[in-house]
Every structure is written in C-alpha cells, then in structure tokens.
Specification:
Length: 214
C-alpha cells in the first residue's frame, strides 16, 4: 500500500506517545492538531497546532487516541457526537499501573478497550494498532534490527485501509502490517502490554516491538 495523501489528523494526548506521533506525522506532511486538556501547559513544536480536545476532533478526519488507556473510555465518550463519522486510531492500552508505574494488569480483562470504544461510539470507525511496541518504534520502525509488526484490529475495512496508509507514511512496510480482523481481536494485542515490565527488566529501556517471525 502506498503512503496516504496528506490528511487532517488530531492527536489526543501530549505525552511521549502523542508528542512523538504528532511530530512524525507533521514531518510526513500531514496536517496535525494536538488536542489536550490544558492548552496552557502543553508543549509542542512550533509547526504543530495545540488546541482543546473538542476543537482538534472537529478539525480532523483521523483521530489518534494517545491518552492513558485507563481513562480513555470516559474521555472519548464525552465527545461521542464530535467523533461521529471519524476514523479513530487507538494506540493505548488500558492497564492497571503497578507501584513502578508499569502495567500490572488489564482494566478490562475479559474485553478490550478497543471493543468498548466501538460499542460506546457506534458511529465512529475504531481501529486498534501500534499498541504492541515502545513509542519510538511507532514512528521509526525501520530503526530496529529485526522487522517489527504492527497489528490492525477493526470492523471497518475502509478505516483500516486509511490507518494502514498512514502507517506507510511513517515508514511501515506493507509486510510489517498484519490485519487481524474485527475489533474483537484487540483483546490479544492489548494483553501483550503485560509483557512490557518483564521485557524492560530484561532488555532495559530500548526500542522494541512484539513482532511475528515468519
């Protein structure tokens, strides 16, 4: 799949994940707006517009959720009307934080955040991806010695195609992207977050992705 043409993208969340995505998507030529709760304290590059969450959603075609997964459902359902008709790429994992701040369990152990978002936002096309890697790999997949894998979960084929194309603009090769099927398949990829503390303890804080060898 060739990289998508320039589109308007809202990145919700100005932490390491959101800031990294906003900068890379801007460099790739997309029109990026960073949506945050407090515009007075958010920091971003001068070529990235910073605004409130509602405005960012309204001015975008694709919305990327990079907010903490344990509060995502509450945040996004409050904007149900604005998200109607939008493609929502959710890159977060809803985890219970351990004493060290790392994932210590799943907030929704029998479901997935992706599924719950789709149920709560029936007029929004939810796609889950990029949630099985450390944040630097999201925007520089080619920097790893071994090809990484980005998984796609979602019920709408056109929405997954849009996300796939955006991944292409960030350097993801076609054969590094695997479409797992419907949004229910996000259960598996979200559960991978429980491996992160052990991997960080073994490898240190280095970029990695949970990939398929084939």
């Amino acid at each position: 799949m060739t990289p998508t043409s320039t589109i308007a993208i809202a990145v919700l969340g100005a932490g390491r994940v959101g800031g990294n995505l906003a900068a890379a998507l801007t460099a790739a030529g997309h029109r990026v707006t960073l949506g945050v709760r407090d515009t007075d304290t958010a920091e971003a590059a001068s070529d990235i517009t910073v605004t409130d969450v509602a405005t960012a959603i309204t001015t975008s075609d694709l919305v990327i959720n990079a907010t903490p997964g344990d509060t995502t459902l509450h945040l996004l359902t409050a904007h149900r009307g604005l998200l109607s008709g939008k493609v929502l790429l959710d890159v977060s994992n809803a985890t219970v934080r351990g004493a060290d701040g790392l994932p210590g369990g799943l907030v929704y152990p029998d479901r997935s955040l992706g599924e719950l978002l789709q149920e709560a936002l029936p007029d929004t096309m939810v796609v889950k991806s990029l949630n099985t890697m450390l944040f630097p790999v999201m925007t520089a997949p080619g920097a790893l010695q071994t090809p990484p894998t980005a998984y796609l979960s979602g019920d709408d084929a056109s929405a997954k195609s849009t996300v796939h194309a955006v991944l292409g603009s960030l350097g993801w090769q076609d054969d590094w992207v695997i479409d797992l099927g419907g949004i229910n398949t996000a259960r598996g990829t979200e559960a991978m977050a429980l491996m992160v503390p052990s991997l960080l303890g073994s490898l240190g804080f280095v970029p990695f992705a949970l990939a398929v060898a084939r």
